Amino acid sequence: MPTGRIKYYNFDKGFGFIAQDSSDADVFLHSSAIKQPEYEELRVGQRVKYSVVEGEKGLVAQNVEVLLTPTERRWLRQGKAIIPRGYAGFPGQNQGPLVADESASTSDYKTHKSEPIRDSRNRDVAVPPSKPTSKPRNPPASTKDRSDTQDRQEQSSKQLSFGDLYILKQINFETSMFFALYNAIQLPATVLEMTLSSLTLNSNGKEQQIAKTDVKYCYKDFDAEKVQAAITIDEAVKAQGLTQLPPDTQPCEIDTEAVRNARKNGSAIEITLREGEIFRGTVDWVSPYEIKLILENGAKVVIFRPAVYNLSVD
To answer: Which of 14, 26, 144, 201 has the fewest other C-beta atoms within 10 Å?
Structure first.
């Protein structure tokens, strides 16, 4: 049977299109052709296999089977909706374009506790809630300003950060990764689930929940050799014996705007972590909780901001 990915899907109207792996011709998909009734909420990018017939207006999919990952099958057995229809940001489901939000501050992650998340059918869902938005320090000067600010905050609450999108992608593809923890631990794992404050990892068949504040950086396994080769050590910082930030402690002050400008200008930045590791490269993206660097040797690494000791921009 041919395979492909969901290119577009309108949940309310029950139809969409499949982009085929072996052809440029899209295939029309109707909800009645889906063989798994328990999988109610298709999302753009979901892999499927199917048979094809010639319809009056073109190719039509039949006997569509959603190709679930082992993690997704587990979520379904637990009665979770993998991607709830009410969760903002997934294109093709009447929710607008997928947008990454950089407006929240790192402190938002500290004050927002992870709680069970449910969809409109009162089922647990296997993705994180939208991050709370930062409140403006100074009150708006006028009613119009207040209205504009509220509109921006309401829009931002429906958005995902680049960091969220990155982790969700790795969950979907079950990417083999390494997570660098304190005390020089390099944990090989795939990501199973994510909340605002933690990651659930599968490391060598053992499931464990790791607080995001325990993670210094992460990278895909195929970049492992290059990442390790790129690291230098600041011995003075290492000698301080710093570990995870204690609860309610503010992380290193990072000029996010300067980092964004460095990304736009292609300028290099240098990041020193609390245990002395030094990374140097250009910025791929920046989010409230992470910074993704393209290192000078081409490897890519995602650095968690609470682990940063110092950051400088060329």
So the answer is: 144
Can you give the length of the chain in residues? Answer: 314
Whether 91 and 100 have beta carbons less than 8 Å apart is answered as no
**pLDDT value at position 96?**
31
Torsion 248-249-253-259 (CA) sign = negative
Average pLDDT over residues 259-273: 95
Number of Cβ within 10 Å of residue 297's Cβ equals 12
For 44, other C-beta atoms within 10 Å of its C-beta total: 17
Distance CA 272, CA 249 (A): 18
CA nearest neighbour of 104 among 43, 46, 162, 61 = 162
Domains of the chain (ranges; CATH) run 3-67 (2.40.50.140), 169-313 (2.30.30.100)
Contact 8, 16 (CB under 8 A): yes
- Which residue is listed with tokens 């950086």? 217
Mean pLDDT of the chain: 76
For 281, which DSSP code? E
Check: CB of residue 87 under 8 Å from CB of residue 170.
no
> CB–CB of 58/44 below 8 Å?
no
Residue 17 identity (one-letter amino acid): F
Q: What is the pTM of this model?
A: 0.56
Distance CA 4, CA 167 (A): 22
Residue 41: per-residue pLDDT: 62
What would the pLDDT profile of 228-237 be if each residue is shown by its tens digit? 999 999 999 9
Residue 161: φ, ψ to 5°: -80, 165
Is residue 76 within 8 A of residue 39, CB to CB? The reply is yes
Cα angle vertex 296, ends 279, 241, to 5°?
15
Locate 91 and state its tokens: 């294109």
Q: What average pLDDT score do residues 189-199 get?
A: 89
Q: Is 198 left (phi over 0), alpha (psi -120 to 50) or beta?
A: beta
